[in-house]
User: Which sequence fits this backbone?
């Protein structure tokens, strides 16, 4: 960033007469495809002026900003070529050289002609070269805009010079090099770059290597090649700021620059290999008073939308500026140094971040060096105060905005950023990344970059050697020493499934082996309230609104899912925002606020969800939940996961706190992580979770399902437009059993969820058009009317076989459909599956299974489920089991697991008495069709319409909906 505080510190030592060696990037075309963009003011942007932005068909990008400063115009022409692009051996310094040569002019406007025109027009023009770009800047009265654009366009398109001019200017460049080499800071920068980089072009400075500069007069042919490669419209941006008409200005640009022919050269700079060890070099400078120390670390490449660059800049200001504690110690208090400043050039690729210190006495060089590195160790081990960090962010932002106080300053600033990706919004992206940096980000990123292997140290003095300086600081050792002083974290007692990978999306699943089955008697619903309080309530330090506000801009999520034996807290965030997200959600989970207003709100929502959601407007889900409740009477599975209404009304916040303390323990926690979670954040997560109680119960003890004898029916009477039907019975086979895969295949054939391929669907819906769908299950599948695939983390120690008929038009149709499903189930048990159906279903599931884990979060969820059931990874598990199956196996499993002697039916009906009468009297339930049907189907209907459900009167109950889950 071009910061005023930085410029003040280093301008005197780093400025060139025509070439200010700042830093920057090379072109990265974002592909506007000759589109035109305009920007409106925004209070959230540091650069909020309106602008007109267009990419011409030849690749030239043009940015026009109208300002209120009268008469004046500033034209800046950043070319995305700098010393970084000089990757041919022996050919360094040419980006800077052509900054000089561009002033030679063209045949139409040679130097003496355009210089006279500029002088008479009062044009102030100059240029400078950096690591990654070269910028040409002109300031003048608006009346001369058209002529200036014409002259500059002709120079860029038709630069002309003689061999003599080339050779003469090469001598001038050599003189400039020698002049600059007299600056201590320049010598330090040249030395550190040469030492720190082995292969990257950042090894040489903007001026290039001296031997290459000396050889430059004989490189005329290469000079022409260099110019023709980079001085093309796709490498160039035009920034025009001032008292102009944007549309008219754009027309001028197109007139003079539009016919410039696009090039085809793309430069591919090889990245620097990872540095393997700390480096040190001493440079002798005869006659230099005092001693200079430069401590440099490799930093981040240019990434304005990520946190690294912004965090590193903040670190420099917090710990190494003239407002820092280190400056106070070394310069003010102990007076070991007379100067200290930081310099952090913005570079396209990973460059160096510098701390310069002028030390008075040789004996203090090692002391000062150690103090610098000790400070870096401090950054790696502490959390900077939020107030201090926020104050710095505010200062940087408003200092930047305040500096945009003229057309020239606005244009110069835009040019210094436009060259990166040739997008004016780059500035705002960078400052937005500043806004998102937290204290945790500072610490995490410091640990990533400020390591011994990234350091290069240079000393500069009149001495041949600095005595006692070879023993470098062990930064990792310094960090370890600081951390040793802190209390050691407890040994984690929870299970970890670490599936971290390169995905930019991070998914975390905090899965506790507890749930609604752990609700105490009389407090049914406390688990549900606990789960909601931890994801929809505030923390000790933030309100829920503050947490939502923090998660919104980073699109971070954190939610809960509750079942009988599992309480899952899942979250997702992009890796760039991981620390900020974790700071918010970990506070919720581990440091809940337990606010009374949150509790009242969530309890009200939970009660309303049962009354108005499940019981009032979701007949199909209600029927399925009532079936589970009836099959598990007297069992811990009996109650609805959200609780009973009477219990919920009486539950207190203290009940929730007690459940949290007793049930959310390390022993019951199974942590799942996937995506590119930073290692230090992962370590922090592991440490933080040790704050949970250890506990000794690893999972809930679940009894077998109650024994079901005979046929039973529960009819829930309510205002309903249709009749919902569910029926089933408990089964002993769960996912970990040897016959589960075969039974899973059977239920898919019989009634695959939301699939038209299933047998029940074809018989009841397809052939008869009775309803929307007909499905079967061997595992709990809530929310089936809203989704096509099951959720993970619904692991249970007991399951039921269930048939779901959704929905039926009347009690008569419901009666017939139930009979039809029972009829087909009896046939399946009696006759089994055919070889054709077995092969087809096995092929289908073998290919379909990966779809259940198609997303990263589902992969993680299913992997955690496999741990619960102690099976292999899901897809591998089912495919392996299917490969071993035979038709005989499947038909044996059908007979051993399925039956129709002991069944419970649930009907949701608007006329419960009518439904009851139909069931008890075995009333015939004929179907009427609105079209002709095959005789075979009609004959089967005659059998089905009188098919016996065999329900004794004592086993059929009609209950009003308001009595359900009361």
Assistant:
């Amino acid at each position: 960033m071009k910061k005023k505080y930085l410029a003040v510190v280093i301008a005197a030592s780093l400025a060139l007469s025509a070439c200010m060696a700042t830093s920057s990037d090379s072109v990265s075309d974002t592909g506007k495809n000759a589109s035109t963009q305009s920007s409106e003011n925004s209070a959230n942007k540091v650069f909020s002026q309106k602008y007109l932005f267009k990419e011409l068909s030849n690749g030239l990008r043009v940015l026009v900003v109208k300002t209120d400063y009268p008469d004046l115009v500033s034209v800046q022409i950043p070319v995305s070529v700098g010393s970084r692009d000089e990757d041919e051996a022996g050919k360094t310094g040419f980006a800077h050289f052509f900054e000089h040569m561009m002033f030679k002019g063209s045949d139409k406007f040679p130097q003496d002609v355009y210089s006279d025109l500029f002088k008479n027009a009062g044009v102030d023009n100059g240029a400078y070269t950096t690591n990654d770009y070269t910028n040409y800047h002109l300031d003048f009265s608006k009346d001369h805009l058209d002529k200036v654009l014409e002259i500059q366009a002709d120079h860029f398109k038709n630069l002309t010079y003689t061999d003599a001019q080339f050779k003469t200017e090469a001598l001038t460049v050599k003189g400039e090099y020698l002049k600059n080499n007299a600056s201590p800071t320049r010598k330090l920068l040249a030395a550190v770059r040469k030492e720190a980089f082995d292969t990257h072009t950042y090894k040489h400075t903007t001026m290039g290597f001296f031997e290459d500069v000396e050889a430059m007069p004989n490189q005329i042919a290469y000079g022409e090649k260099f110019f023709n490669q980079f001085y093309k419209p796709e490498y160039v941006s035009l920034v025009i700021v001032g008292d102009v008409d944007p549309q008219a200005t754009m027309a001028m640009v197109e007139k003079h620059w539009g016919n410039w022919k696009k090039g085809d050269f793309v430069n591919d700079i090889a990245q620097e290999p990872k540095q393997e060890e700390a480096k040190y070099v001493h440079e002798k400078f005869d006659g230099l008073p005092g001693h200079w120390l430069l401590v440099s670390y490799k930093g981040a490449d240019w990434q304005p939308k990520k946190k690294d660059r912004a965090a590193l800049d903040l670190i420099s200001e917090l710990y190494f500026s003239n407002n820092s504690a280190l400056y106070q110690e070394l310069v003010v208090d102990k007076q070991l140094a007379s100067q200290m400043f930081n310099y952090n050039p913005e570079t396209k690729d990973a460059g160096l971040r510098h701390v310069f210190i002028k030390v008075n006495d040789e004996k203090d060089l090692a002391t000062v060096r150690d103090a610098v590195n000790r400070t870096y160790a401090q950054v790696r081990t502490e959390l900077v105060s939020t107030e201090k960090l926020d104050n710095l962010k505010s200062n940087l932002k408003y200092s930047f905005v305040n500096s945009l106080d003229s057309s020239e300053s606005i244009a110069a600033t835009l040019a210094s950023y436009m060259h990166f990706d040739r997008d004016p919004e780059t500035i705002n992206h960078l400052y937005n990344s500043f806004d998102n940096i937290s204290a945790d980000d500072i610490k995490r990123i410091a640990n990533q970059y400020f390591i011994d292997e990234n350091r290069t140290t240079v000393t500069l003095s009149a001495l041949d050697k600095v005595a006692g300086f070879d023993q470098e600081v062990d930064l990792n050792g310094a960090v370890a020493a600081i951390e040793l002083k802190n209390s050691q974290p407890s040994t984690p007692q929870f299970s970890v499934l670490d599936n971290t990978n390169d995905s930019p999306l991070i998914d975390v699943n905090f899965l506790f082996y507890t749930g609604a089955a752990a609700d105490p008697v009389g407090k049914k619903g406390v688990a549900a309230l606990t789960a909601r309080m931890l994801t929809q309530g505030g923390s000790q330090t933030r309100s829920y609104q503050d947490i939502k506000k923090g998660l919104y801009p980073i699109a971070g999520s954190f939610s809960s899912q509750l079942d009988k034996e599992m309480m899952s807290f899942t979250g997702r965030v992009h890796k760039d925002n991981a620390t900020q997200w974790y700071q918010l959600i970990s506070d919720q989970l581990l440091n809940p606020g337990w606010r009374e207003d949150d509790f009242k709100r969530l309890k009200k929502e939970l009660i309303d969800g049962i009354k108005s959601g499940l019981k009032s407007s979701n007949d199909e889900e209600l029927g399925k939940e009532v079936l589970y409740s009836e099959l598990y009477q007297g069992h811990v599975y009996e109650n609805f996961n959200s609780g009973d209404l009477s219990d919920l009304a009486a539950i207190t916040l203290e009940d929730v706190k007690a459940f949290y303390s007793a049930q959310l323990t390390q022993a019951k926690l199974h942590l799942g992580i996937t995506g590119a979670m930073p290692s230090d954040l992962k370590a922090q997560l592991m440490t933080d979770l040790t704050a949970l109680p250890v506990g000794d119960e690893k999972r809930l003890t679940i009894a077998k399902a109650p024994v079901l004898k005979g046929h039973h029916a529960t009819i829930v009477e309510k205002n309903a437009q249709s009749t919902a039907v569910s029926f089933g019975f408990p089964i002993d086979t769960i996912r970990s059993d040897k016959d589960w895969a075969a039974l899973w295949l059977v239920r898919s054939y019989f009634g695959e969820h939301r699939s038209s391929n299933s047998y029940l669907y074809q018989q009841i819906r397809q052939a008869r058009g009775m309803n929307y769908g007909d499905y079967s299950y061997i595992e709990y599948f809530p929310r089936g009317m809203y989704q096509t695939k099951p959720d993970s983390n619904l692991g249970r120690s007991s399951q039921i076989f269930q048939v779901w008929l959704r929905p039926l038009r009347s009690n008569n149709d419901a009666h017939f459909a139930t009979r039809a499903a029972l009829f087909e189930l009896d046939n399946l048990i009696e006759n089994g599956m055919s070889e054709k159906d077995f092969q087809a279903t096995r092929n289908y599931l073998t290919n379909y299974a990966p779809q259940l884990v198609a997303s990263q979060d589902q992969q993680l969820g299913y992997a955690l489920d496999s741990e619960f059931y102690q099976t292999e990874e899901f897809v591998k598990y089912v495919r392996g089991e299917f490969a071993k199956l035979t038709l005989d196996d499947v038909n044996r499993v059908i007979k051993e697991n399925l039956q129709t002697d002991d069944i419970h039916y649930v009907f949701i009906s608007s006329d419960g008495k009518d439904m009851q009468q139909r069931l008890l009297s075995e009333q015939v339930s004929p179907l009427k069709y609105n079209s002709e049907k095959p005789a075979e189907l009609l004959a089967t209907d005659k059998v089905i319409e009188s098919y016996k459900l065999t329900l004794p009167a004592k086993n059929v109950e009609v209950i009003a909906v308001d009595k359900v889950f009361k």
